[in-house]
Amino acid sequence: MTKTPTWAFDDLAVGQTFALGPKHVTAGEIVAFASEFDMQPMHLDEEAGKASLLGGLAASGWHTCAMFMRMACDTLLLDSTSQGAPGVEYARWRRPVLAGDTLSGEAEVIALRRSEKRPQLGYVTFRHRLRNQRGELVFELEHAGMFLTRDAIS
Amino acid sequence: MTKTPTWAFDDLAVGQTFALGPKHVTAGEIVAFASEFDMQPMHLDEEAGKASLLGGLAASGWHTCAMFMRMACDTLLLDSTSQGAPGVEYARWRRPVLAGDTLSGEAEVIALRRSEKRPQLGYVTFRHRLRNQRGELVFELEHAGMFLTRDAIS
What we know:
Two copies of one chain form a homodimer. Chain A is α+β, with helices and mostly antiparallel strands. Chain A is built from four helices and six strands, in the order E-H-H-H-E-E-E-E-E-H. Chain A has a five-stranded antiparallel beta sheet. In chain A, strand 4 (102-114) and strand 5 (121-131) form a beta hairpin.
C-alpha cells in the first residue's frame, strides 16, 4: 500500500453514498466478455439479441456485475481498507444493458457491524444501483464487504 | 439456433443435477480478469494475496461467478431454451479460489414454476456448488433462470 487509505470501517456511516460510473458500454466489450464466459446468442450477436427477450445485443448479467465492481473499485474500494466480501445478498438485473448504454448510479451504506471475533474488522452492507442514460434502473445489488478499522492500519 | 435444444422447461425436474467443470484456474486468468474489473491487490499479485485474508493470489469473486457461468453454459445453457435470468438469490464465496486450483461441482434444480403471464415460459431455480481439488466448497449460488417450454419451440 503506497498511502494510507482514505476509507476505513470507522469512516463509513449508514446513509453515505459513493457515485458509481459513468461507464459507457460498447458492443465490443459485451461480445468479448460473453465469448469467454457466457456464450448465449443474445450476448454475442445483435440479431439474436433483437430476437430475444432482451431486445438487442445485451451484456451478460455477470458482465454487468463485473462492470459494477470496476466502478466500485474506482469510487471507493481501491482507496479503502477493503478485505473482500463473503458473498452477495441478492442481485437483480432489472432491465437489459444494451450496447451503447451508459451506466451510472450509487453505492449506499445501509448497515455497519463490527466483527465480534476480529475487533479490527467490520462488515459494511451496501445497496448498489445502476441506471442507464434514460434514468431507468438496470441493476441492483446488495452485499456486505469486510473493511479493516483505522486502528488496524495506524 | 442450429438444432432443437435438448433442454426445455418441461425437461427439467426437481433434484436433477448437471456436472459443472472441471475448470483449471491459472494465475494469468486471475490477473487478466482483475486488471479489467477488480484491481484489488490480492487479485493482482501473489505477495499481496499472501498478505491478505485470502492467503495467495486469489480470483475476484466476480471472476468465480463468471467462470461458473461458463461451466453452466457448457453443461446446460447452450443446449437449452434459456432466456436469461432476472437475478441472483444469493452468492457465497466460501473459500478463496487460488491460482492453480481446479473447480468442479454441480447445478441442481431445486424448484420449477411456470410463468402465469407467459404460459410458454417457466422459472427454474438452481442451486450451484463448486469445490476445489481438495473437495472443499468454494462457491455457492442460487438463482432462477427463465426457460421456454417445449411447446414454444416446436
